[in-house]
Amino acid sequence: MRSRPFYDVVAALARLGVGIVFMAHGWQKIEAGITATGRTFDGLGVPLPTAAAVYSAFVELLGGAALIVGLGLPVTGALLFLDMAGAFVFVHADQGLFMVDEGAARNGYELVLALGMASLVFAAGGGGRLTLDQWVIGKRLRGAAADDDEDDAASFVESLRQAELKPPKKPRRTPKPRASDPPAATEPSATEPSATEPSATEPPATQNRPADDPGDDVLVAGRRKASHRRRSSTTQPIKPPAGDDKTSP
C-alpha cells in the first residue's frame, strides 16, 4: 500500500517532467514564429492552421509551466489533452506508433499519446498535494475557519452582553389576605390528632361506665328497664290501701 507523502513526491516529479517537455515544444513553436508554424500546420492538413498554431504554442508553453507549479491542474490538464488529441487526429494517427523506426523518422504518435494521457491524469486530480492549488485552497480553508471562530466568539460575547443588559426577573409576590376573604382551609398537621380519631391520651368510653351498665347492645335493653323498675320500687313510698285510711284513727 502506497503512502500519501510518497505519492505526492512522485506526482510532483511526473508533473515536472511532462511540464518541461510541453514548455520545450511550445517555446520551439514561438521561436520559429507563429506564422511559420501556421504554414507548417497548413502543409500537414491541420484546419485553421494559424489559430491552431497560436493555441498549440501558448497552451504548451504556459500549460507546461502551470503543470510544474501545480496551478489550475483540472483546466490545464484538459487544455493540454485537447492539444495532443488534435495533434494525434490531424498529424500523427496515420504515421504509426514510433517516431523513429529503422533509422528513419516516421513521426509516429507515441510521444503525443504519452503526453496526452499524462495530461488527462493530471486533469482528473492525479497531481498530488504538492501543488499551488492545494496551498491556495488550504489557505482559504484556514481563513474561513478563522472567520468562523471569530464569528462564534463575537456571537458568544454578544450573548453575554445581552444577558447582562437584560433586567432580572422580580420574584412573584403572593397577595395579602383581605378581611372580607373567607379563611383559607388548612390541612391538619401530622402531629395534631384528627377530630374523627380518638386521642391516645383520651380514656376509652368503657372506663367511665358504671359497674351495673352492661353496655350499649340491644340485647341488654331489657336489663336497663329492669334495673329502672328496681330503683323505682325501692325509692317510692308504698301507699296504704283505701280501706286502711278509713280504719286508721
What does this structure look like?
- With 249 residues, the chain is mainly α.
- It has helices at 4-32, 34-43, 49-69, 73-92, 110-123, 132-165, 221-235, 242-247; strands at residues 100-101, 104-105.
- A hairpin with a 2-residue loop joins strand 1 (100-101) and strand 2 (104-105).
- The chain starts with a helix and ends with a helix.
- 16% of the residues are buried.
- Mean pLDDT is 75; it is low at 202-207, 215-235 and 243-249.
Strand content: under 5%
What is the overall pLDDT average?
75
Tell me the structural class: mainly alpha
Number of strands: 2
Oligomeric form: single chain
List the strand order in the largest sheet: 1-2
* Radius of gyration from the alpha-carbon trace, in angstroms: 61 Å
Helix proportion range = 55-70%
Q: Low-confidence segments, ≥5 residues, pLDDT <50?
A: 202-207, 215-235, 243-249
Distance between the termini: 157 Å
Shape: rod-shaped
Instruction: Give the count of helical stretches.
Output: 8
List the helices and strands in order.
HHHHEEHHHH
State the major sheet: 2 strands, antiparallel
Keyword list:
249 residues; mainly alpha; two-stranded antiparallel ribbon; 2% strand; rod-shaped; disordered C terminus
In short:
The chain has 249 residues and is mainly α. The chain is 60% helix and 2% strand. The N and C termini lie far apart (157 Å).
SSE blueprint and pairings:
Blueprint: H1 4-32, H2 34-43, H3 49-69, H4 73-92, E1 100-101, E2 104-105, H5 110-123, H6 132-165, H7 221-235, H8 242-247
Antiparallel strand pairs: 1-2
